[in-house]
Amino acid sequence: MLREGAIFDRHAIAEIQRAAREGIYDIRGFGAKRRLPHFDDLVFLGASVSRYPLEGYRERCDTDVVLGDRNASKPLHLKIPITIAGMSFGALSAPAKEALGRGASAVGTSTTTGDGGMTPEEREHSSMLVYQLLPSRYGMNPDDLRKADAIEIVVGQGAKPGGGGMLLGQKISDRVAEMRDLPKGIDQRSACRHPDWTGPDDMEIKIQELREITDWEKPIFVKVGATRPYYDVALAVKAGADVVVLDGMQGGTAATQEVFIEHVGIPTLAAIRPAVEALTELGMHRKVQLVVSGGIRSGADVAKALALGADAVSIGVAAIIALGDNSPEHEEGYRAIGSAAGFYDDWHEGRDPAGISTQDDELAARFDAELGGRRLANYLRTLTLETQTLARACGKSHVHNLEPEDLVALTVEAAAMARVPLAGTTWVPGADGS
Amino acid sequence: MTEVDLAQTPLRELNAALHVPGVAGGWRVLNPRGAHALAVGIDAPIEVDIDGHAGYYCAGMNKHATVRVHGNAGVGVAENIMSGTVVVEGNASQSAGASGRGGLLIIRGSASARCGISMKGVDIVVQGSVGHMSAFMAQRGRLVVCGDAGDALGDSIYEARLYVRGSVAGLGADCVEKEMRDENRDELGALLERAGVDDCSVSDFRRYGSARRLYNFDVDHAGEY
Questions:
Q1: Handedness of CA A339, A342, A344, A345 (dihedral sign)
Q2: Distance CA A279, CA A235 (A)
Q3: In the 3-class helix/strand/coil scheme, how is A355-377 assigned residue by residue?
Q4: Can you name the residues that pair with B169 across neighbouring β-strands?
Q5: From CA A81, how far away is CA A163, in angstroms rounded?
Q6: In the prediction, which pLDDT does A164 show?
Q7: How, if at all, do strands A129-133 and A150-154 pair?
Q8: With an 8 Å Cβ cutoff, is A19 touching chain B?
């Protein structure tokens, strides 16, 4: 009888064989693929004798959120608490970026640039666009800074806290090279630290500079990968951030070493409560907004993140899946490059049959930005409806009224991380030092 | 000439005034006292003289303007400069001209570590010396150092061109000395002239740039990082 090893399973063996053959680490897109404690390990309690629900189709359950009203004269007013995360032109095709803007704008939410600058297409089709300031500073310029609706200082991302961006030569087309001031076709590896500041005291001055350049109009976000959320959030608030974006280890990437994706950072579920604790201790919960990302797939995930204290969530991988990534309609194309619909993660290779994670004009032309935008809008509406359904079931007239008391955990690990009781008990592991 | 005394006027008012569409003429900033974010985000062909020392990010993201610091400048002077000219009469701290995409930065004294880090088209002329890791990941533009360069010059450099008159403590990964050809002597001479440097001979400089061995992943070069 054949027996697969639990330690040396098929994936581990294949990876050893690949490393021996190629002599370099594996690079791929997507987020962490291994099983992690996640929102699935929580359930809502819903209404009961002591809590009454709201009528599902009759009573209001609001979803709006304001981001960045602490210091900025022009904060973002989102209709739904779901935003589109930063994804670069370069990683994604120009039509895919346009589709993200179309979909987000249709439902009144924001989208975000990425490690490659702002394209006219995404600015035109995004009613609210967040402009990222990354360590690479590719394409950074004051004109786009002023065109933006908010500025996001990227310290790190969940897929690779401590690592810089990566875009391999296949995707450095003429246009991408020009926007990034790089030679065409090189393997581009972005810096992991900003070129002109280090640490929270410098970041405070950087934020001041960005505010001065934009005359204190734009909200300033600070994005961190989830590692030490209690301290990172406190330091970001101290540095003057209007919004903190907290990206768990399930957060996606266009290209990163697999060892980084799977082994650095903490799960989204474990990051939210320490972040909220820091905000609460500083008297800044709901004043400095917390946007959580990393593994958000459904309205249940959205509702659980909000219940744990987030003001909004951000989606990346789910958004491009909604556009058409990994769709069975491209099964033949995936098979032709040694993958399959539902498994494709070699986004760095630029051979995407769906025309989304590519700079190949022929492949990109397969993607219909209008259709992609409609699909994304449909998906965002569904997430919102699902979130409202759960909130009403808990008796909440605004999704922000969801609270930890509405949740219990199905596993001891999730109970400890989310700081909610294990289902059927009053036990919150670690709450009293136990 | 418009004078703004920062002992009397908040910084926000100064920068807001410099951003007013159609802003023109000469501006003099008194009592800067090391303030951060001085004269940032200007987008007009004006002249700004800062009478004293500047803090972090002076003249950040400058377009078209000429900004002169009559003193020393803190971290990231002229960071992400797009065009125009920034002159530091004294010394500059770390990351001078960081990620600059155009224009000219002149430092009459010396610059600290990471001068020209991530530069993307800016020209930088330093009459003194520069610290370690200068021109780190420099993508485009020219860095001229009339004095000495610290360790790891041009580490992971792309297509920027570096000219150093004095000694180089060490070259970073993938940075090599290159032949000084006639076109290099011509562009260096023009840069020195634009910067008003007349006490250096072009023939005293050596040129450094990318060996381009690390542009694409190659396991045989992994040890060079």
A1: negative
A2: 10
A3: CCCCCCHHHHCCCCHHHHHHHHH
A4: none
A5: 28
A6: 84
A7: parallel
A8: no
Separation of alpha carbons B112 and B102, rounded Å: 21
Percent of chain A with pLDDT strictly greater than 90: 91
Q: Where are the alpha helices (DSSP H) in chain B?
A: 11-19, 182-194
Would you state the pLDDT for residue B214?
Answer: 86
Q: Residues 6 or more apart from A366 whose CB is under 8 A from it?
A: A353, A354, A355
- The answer to whether residue A282 neighbours chain B at the CB level (below 8 Å) is no
Query: What's the whole-number average pLDDT of chain B?
Result: 96
Residue B225 has pLDDT above 70, yes or no: no
DSSP character at residue A89: B
Please tell me which residue of chain A has the smallest CA distance to B11.
A212
Distance separating alpha carbons of residues B111 and B131, to the nearest angstrom: 6
Question: CB A202 to CB B75 under 8 A?
Answer: yes
Give the residue among A422, A376, A415, A334 at the shortest CA–CA distance from A109.
A376
pTM: 0.97
User: Is residue B224 very low, low, confident or very high in pLDDT (cuts 50, 70, 90)?
Assistant: low
Tell me which residue of B192, B72, B70, B69 sits closest to B124, measured CA to CA.
Answer: B192
| CA end-to-end distance (rounded Å), chain B | 51
| pLDDT tens digits along B158-172 | 999 999 999 999 999
Distances (CA, A) of A226 to A160, A164, A172, A191, A279: 10, 15, 29, 19, 15
Whether B6 shows a pLDDT value over 70: the answer reads: yes
Q: Which residues of A touch B4 (CB under 8 A)?
A: none
Q: Which two tokens stand for residue A42?
A: 């929580």
Secondary structure letter of residue A330 according to DSSP: G
Residues lower than pLDDT 50 in chain A: none
Non-local (6+) Cβ contacts of B224 within 8 A are B173, B174, B213, B214
Query: What tokens were used for A399?
Result: 């999704």
Sequence letter at residue A260: F
The answer to whether A301 and A39 have CB atoms below 8 angstroms apart is yes
